[in-house]
């Protein structure tokens, strides 16, 4: 039976990606799209690539009749999201794509996001949305907190390895490369084509990137002790894609075995043959994760590389995957589209 | 009922795009993939972005059991295609993506492609694959000749206008901009990233591009007189997309009316509001065509701009659309995927 | 003897390009850099690529001691420029890079820029800055108005042809392709990497682009009658470069002869062998113009393609070239740097 | 007094970059350009961006009169270079840009390049071309071996730190990002625009990249013990630029102090304020190196990022810098061109 969907904050890239995915999803129907500043506009004027679809115009959130909505995706900016979700009907299923409910500890939220949380009771209720590791809880959840896109990429590498105890927890370095759509449609000088194309730079250096809050929370919980990784992202001249390079102390063969076993039955996570590494080109526009493992020339050191599409598997695709579970649909419904190459 | 499909020449971009589209097509199943030089290799080693699919390995054409094939796509190079198709079972449905059967006249083929045609009898049988204009013939055809990607783009603009008699046939200029995937996976210096990115140039200048053979054939047939347009393509630093700018003598309002009326019921062709023009960004990865019409400041002169994705609507998407018709399936099956933006 | 230079409006791309060029100019010394909103900042914080230079910090215009300045480049936005230049010392040599003094007729300015001109007396005094065609006047000028970058490209093709009377003045079509730096450092959605890369679109369609004001003024003056060309620019996913494709009624051989003769002694304008066309890749970062001429398959129709770097020859390089003349220096001083390829 | 220069192997990117740099060098004159396969062709047909220069046509090496040459740049492929240089006059000054003379130990050469060295006596004679660290030897050298472009980038970070003893030599990780021109003009599938743009991947993973041979040789010599770093490069969708991210065990403040002191008087190496990191955009087309140092949130761990232009400072610019020294010219002559941005 078709489920009615609302997308709150549909004028950004993750909102548009949700519409893209849902447009060919057999069981979901877009019943409402909101955008406060662009209320009244047709979606096709905000995103002409959706011109072929018959979509409701953008409206304000207070114009949505939530009684008719089965599930709402919330693709609003951080901080706005918590206020909006707090005001929604208490029994409405919600998948939030912001950072607002990723951290369970109000103090951690305040540390990384620099402000008090307006809905700490919802923080406690929210289930962390990394589907492959929270599947059961997500199926029964009312509120799911989508992960950070960088945070998702890193966890696909590290969670099974920390759990298996096969790497040195005090020697985890993650050098990450990401495309620009992860920064959203914000008008910033460094996101202009003239400033970004044909070059690269690091950003949020030295352990200051907010997704470290998620790493700290999740890895420490798995390990049963505090785990602090080193992490620096680099902005690349490409639109979609994240490539995480993990430099690890551990046996590469064992690492490969652990990851291969862990993901053998996962429909979206593919572990490559030992010694080969993946490319972001090969997951663009899709919900797939590719992971490769290599041994270093120094014995006992390993390199693990993971790639995914930040807008899809790292955000909106993950959100649809979680929505499928919450609505009792097969998890892969609407998400098996092949990557777009070239 | 699921139809069994063979893709001959699956190691190029149009072959891979066919696999991408068919991978989520509910009624088609890939039964054979051929690649003479790469026979024996798994498709995932030639195109790692297809890693998640359960596909047959590449084989040689002579290894395919065509008795079990309902339809073959032929994505081979020009000239190779005619020899291969000539040797296939005479009752096998074939959609050819090469240039070999686009020109009905052997002399025209020789003029534009510089060699004798090896299967002139098939030239006569083949139906030209511009779906929106040859729908009935394609439905009953055994052999359909996919159009050139540039030729398709230009015809979406000009066919209805020539038919309506609303433009000066001796004053048609088409300035075309195309992405690099149209040139295929060939190893040529000018297709290297270092040579192509961050710049542009014209090519096949002054009326020498082979797709003019298709324009001449089709436009002259519609007009009932010889029509010769001026046409120069430019290579752009982008992978997918064609933008055709037609500079026309005619009344812009009437042109808009004619195109709007012609495409009102077409599922894949969208005519924009008068005065606005489309972007290739908005059709990337999809089977859609967007067309915009503008009046020039000089009365009686008009500008029409059309965009499509060369690999999809300009080639493999068109091929699947035609295959759907030939197999009695709804025409849009498997082709309604939204464009990928950004 | 070294000349002291001020750059007013040094925080934009044309200002930075002036600094780049002057940094290796043997006879010019940067004595002042202004930027109202960024006054007090070191240039290296606004443009880190200039980090190696010993430059004055940005200041406000009213802080500059113009008594010590030999020539000022004015790289301010349109409309701001006329107010600023009006208030400068009346004997200060000025090269303006804005649109404010390109149009000699106040009515034309008002038509194309939508406002009254604040300094019509300076409009009359200003010399149009297309060096190769206004060399003598520029040498003696106090105020030179830099051309539009698109306008410059088009004029290198058309001025000699109109003067020679070898093309049909009522049949001039110019299809232009330009890189994004021409739009400046403005924060606009369509200039974001995610929106601009990997695609193209037309803009300012149908005869509405402001550089048409320059074309109309110049071409009509040369022809001694009103000349109105058709012109549509397209925005390309590249940072630097303009490629203008002119579709002309005229004899291609004669056109080639006229252009070759006209530019034979010009140090920066290179006419290619007949039948070949240029690439923007080959002028990137330089002050050179490359022009190619091709005959169409339709007799009497010709294609002329010209390329230049919009920031250099189309703007700041032209400005330095003009400044050299105004200061009695050899015209090519500091401008012979080879293009940067790849 | 003008020195006569020969460039052997002028049809590749480093050869063309040499021509670009020398074209505005006041004391060098290009007397011969060789290209075996393209002998007889004008340089402008191989590299149209050099069209404005008056250059000798390409010739074969055996056609060059070396008696009239003051210095030869050898930009030939690895292995070819050693055979060619061995056959040159024994007193001819040579700057080699290949890998052939970077490793002093024939066994090391054989290990990393998989073949016997044909001129081991020249290996012994050659001076390693990292100018800032071999200045005195280069000034008196007859044969200088240009460094690997990745190897140069890494050494600007690590040499002073190893020498100062301020980092853990067993915990050096270098995650490198490089543009595609470093791979040369080779026709390889993964270098095509369609395969490379809009994505990234690692290559030469796990300690297999040949530039490790240089790291091992140089770092072990400085440390007086064997030093083996971990190193993996990633190929980015950009043409020029290398960004090396070094993950180090050491005190970030001390590291900053050491690097700042070491490079205070170097004209081409700029150390940024503590806590900031550089971008490849800011060195494009130039001979500059920018280095930034950041402390990690984990005490005792530091991040150092260095950028340079692989074709210029990483190869041809370094070569000219060394040639200046060998010919008794001021070291910076012809190399102070500002980067090209945007």
From TrEMBL, chains A, B, C, D:
Gene3D superfamilies from the UniProt entry: Dihydrodipicolinate Reductase, domain 2, NAD(P)-binding Rossmann-like Domain
Active site: 149
Described purpose of this protein according to its UniProt entry: Catalyzes the NADPH-dependent reduction of N-acetyl-5-glutamyl phosphate to yield N-acetyl-L-glutamate 5-semialdehyde.
Protein name, entry field: N-acetyl-gamma-glutamyl-phosphate reductase
Location(s) in or outside the cell: Cytoplasm
GO terms classed as biological process: L-arginine biosynthetic process
Principal location listed in the UniProt entry: cytoplasm
Domain Semialdehyde dehydrogenase NAD-binding: 4-141
Pfam families to which the protein is assigned, alphabetical: Semialdhyde_dh, Semialdhyde_dhC_1
Entry keywords, A to Z: Amino-acid biosynthesis, Arginine biosynthesis, Cytoplasm, NADP, Oxidoreductase
Reactions it catalyzes: N-acetyl-L-glutamate 5-semialdehyde + phosphate + NADP(+) = N-acetyl-L-glutamyl 5-phosphate + NADPH + H(+)
UniProt cross-references to HAMAP family, sorted A to Z: ArgC_type1
InterPro entries associated with the record: AGPR, AGPR_dimerisation_dom, AGPR_type-1, NAD(P)-bd_dom_sf, Semialdehyde_DH_NAD-bd
E.C. code: 1.2.1.38
Coiled coil: none
Pathway given in the UniProt record: Amino-acid biosynthesis; L-arginine biosynthesis; N(2)-acetyl-L-ornithine from L-glutamate: step 3/4
Entry's family note: Belongs to the NAGSA dehydrogenase family. Type 1 subfamily.
Cellular component per GO, a single term: cytoplasm
Enzyme class, first EC level, given as a word: oxidoreductase
Gene: argC
SUPFAM superfamilies from the UniProt entry: Glyceraldehyde-3-phosphate dehydrogenase-like, C-terminal domain (SSF55347), NAD(P)-binding Rossmann-fold domains (SSF51735)
Record-level Gene Ontology MF annotations: N-acetyl-gamma-glutamyl-phosphate reductase activity; NAD binding; NADP+ binding
């Amino acid at each position: 039976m078709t489920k009615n969907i609302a997308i709150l904050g549909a004028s950004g890239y993750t909102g548009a990606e949700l519409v893209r995915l849902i447009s060919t999803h057999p069981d979901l129907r877009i019943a409402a799209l909101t955008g406060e500043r662009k209320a009244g506009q047709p979606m096709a004027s905000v995103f002409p690539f959706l011109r072929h679809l018959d979509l409701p115009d953008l409206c304000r959130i207070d114009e949505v009749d939530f009684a008719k909505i089965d599930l709402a995706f919330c693709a609003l900016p951080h901080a706005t999201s918590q206020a909006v979700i707090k005001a929604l009907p208490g029994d409405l299923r919600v998948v939030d794509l912001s950072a607002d409910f990723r951290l369970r500890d109000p103090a951690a939220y305040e540390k990384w996001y620099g402000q008090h949380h307006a809905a700490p009771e919802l923080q406690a209720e929210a289930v962390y949305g990394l589907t492959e590791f929270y599947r059961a809880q997500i199926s029964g959840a009312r509120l799911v907190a989508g992960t950070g896109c960088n945070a998702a990429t890193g966890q696909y590498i590290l969670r099974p390895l920390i759990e298996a105890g096969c790497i040195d927890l005090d020697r985890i370095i993650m050098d990450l490369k990401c495309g620009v759509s992860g920064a959203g449609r914000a008008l910033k000088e460094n996101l202009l084509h003239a400033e970004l194309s044909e070059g690269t730079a690091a950003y949020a250096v030295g352990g200051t990137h907010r997704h470290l809050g998620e790493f700290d929370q999740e890895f420490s919980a798995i390990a049963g002790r505090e785990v602090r990784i080193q992490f620096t992202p680099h902005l690349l001249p490409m639109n979609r894609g994240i490539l995480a390079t993990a430099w690890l102390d551990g046996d590469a063969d064992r690492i490969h075995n652990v990851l291969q076993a862990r993901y053998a039955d996962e429909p979206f996570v593919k572990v490559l043959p030992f010694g080969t590494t993946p490319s972001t080109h090969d997951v663009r526009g899709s919900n797939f994760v590719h992971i490769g493992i290599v041994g270093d020339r120094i014995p006992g050191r390993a390199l693990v590389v993971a790639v995914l599409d930040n807008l899809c598997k790292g955000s909106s695709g993950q959100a649809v995957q979680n929505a499928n579970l919450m609505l009792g649909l097969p998890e892969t419904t609407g998400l098996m589209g092949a990557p777009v190459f070239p």
